[in-house]
Amino acid sequence: MDAQCRTSDPAIFAAGDCVRFPGRGGLVRLENWIHAQDHGASAGRNAAGARDEYAPVPSFWSEQYDLYLQGVGWPVADAARVHRPLDANRAIVFEVHDGCLTYAMGINVQRDLAIARRLIERRIPVDPEALADAGRPLAAMLKR
Ligand SMILES: Cc1cc2nc3c(=O)[nH]c(=O)nc-3n(C[C@H](O)[C@H](O)[C@H](O)COP(=O)(O)OP(=O)(O)OC[C@H]3O[C@@H](n4cnc5c(N)ncnc54)[C@H](O)[C@@H]3O)c2cc1C
Questions:
Q1: CB 103 within 8 A of CB 143
Q2: What residue ranges of the chain have pLDDT lower than 70?
Q3: What is the position in ligand 1's atom list of the atom closest to the CA of 39?
Q4: Which residues line ligand 1 (CB under 6 A)?
Q5: Model pTM above 0.90
Q6: How many domains does the chain have?
């Protein structure tokens, strides 16, 4: 499928779990609700004549009992991994590549993941030491 959700038959558009589309580093398949919703909207607009390029910063969430799991960004094979130590029942790990945040995954850290999304989308340079220090607010990194 191409970046405008068009299949090998140009009259047929597809979205969601069933398709591979051009992502970071090649064709990828994402399987989560947010992708299915956003991809479907993009496919629908293009089927109606628009020329939307679907280029998401992927993200997912899942509630597992009292744990709220989230991930955002594109994992990169040779990224540096940074853990930010948090209190019980909360966890967050970052991946940094070429000085920027490329991926973050967390448990019970909705606010931090929202900030991580903005850092990824804006490609704001980050300091791994600051990411690893829970005393240094992530929001301050948006102001660099
Ligand atoms: C057990 C489980 C847990 C999950 N938990 C999470 C989660 O916590 N968070 C998250 O983000 N994602 C989760 N997912 C993934 C998420 O459900 C999927 O990524 C999402 O539903 C994909 O949406 P879709 O519209 O692409 O496909 P689907 O939701 O699979 O919809 C496809 C539809 O097409 C219909 N269909 C198939 N063949 C035909 C046919 N020939 N003719 C007509 N209709 C057909 C199917 O019946 C189905 O209704 C979970 C998936 C599973 C299986």
A1: no
A2: 144
A3: 26
A4: 16-18, 31-33, 36, 60, 62
A5: no
A6: 2
